[in-house]
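Progress report, Aim 2. The chain analyzed during this reporting quarter is listed below.
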Amino acid sequence: MGSGKMGEALLKGTLAAHFLHPKQVVMCDILPHRLVEIADRYGVSTSQDARTSARDSQVVILSVKPQDIRAVLKTIREVVEEDHLLISIAAGVSTTFVEEELGKKARVVRVMPNTPAMSLAGISVVSPGRYAHPEDAEYVLAFMSSVGETMLLPEENQNAAMAIHGCGPAYFSLFIESLVDAGISMGLSKEVSSKLAVETMFGSARMLKETGMEASELRRMVTSPAGTTVEALKVLEENRFRYAVIKAVERAALRAREIGEELEEER
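Predicted structure tokens for the chain:
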């Protein structure tokens, strides 16, 4: 349900990993031209009929924006049975909200992926609802593994996790933009600055992942006494860089909670 960027990322990943075959998938959307693009690109079936598509499927993925999820659930409510598995990737939307909107003991698993899933390098947080079966969580973890790493967390941790990994690519991109701008201001071309910034961040992240090293340890490795890096870090600390990041993550988590509350209030 929904063939936006994340819906397409999940489709691309599950097909590339041979987790699913094109014949097993129906992509639903209200935009005809988008469905034509998806069908041409991946060879899957498409439909604008969410109700029929949900009725005829075993797994329904709710890949829509939070403000659209109530309308989708209303559309499919009568055809969803207890043998359906619903996977919701709507930010801030609880499994309880989905269950109550459907008015039944639906098997719901909440998932928050992130945009690097489009490059099959994402990380997803998975939280089963109260009526989900143990094998449902196992299936969703396997499903999401096709587009990157996965973590199983209690649902009360979803908003905090989302504020790091869901919003994180935007924080990361802003930092990259800033590095590129700094390079340009000092006479480097945009192409050179971009390559230096992206490759440095990629290499640093890869090093942390492969070695299991703490980020603070890598920082200390790069920071020599009376050297260039220590002077740069002083400026970041003077400008409360660490504090700004912490407050940004806290605000994102709060907004996710607010989204859920707003949906509840609209009832």
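Residues 17 and 236 are 41 Å apart (CA to CA). The two ends are 22 Å apart (CA to CA). These observations will guide the mutagenesis work planned for the next reporting period.
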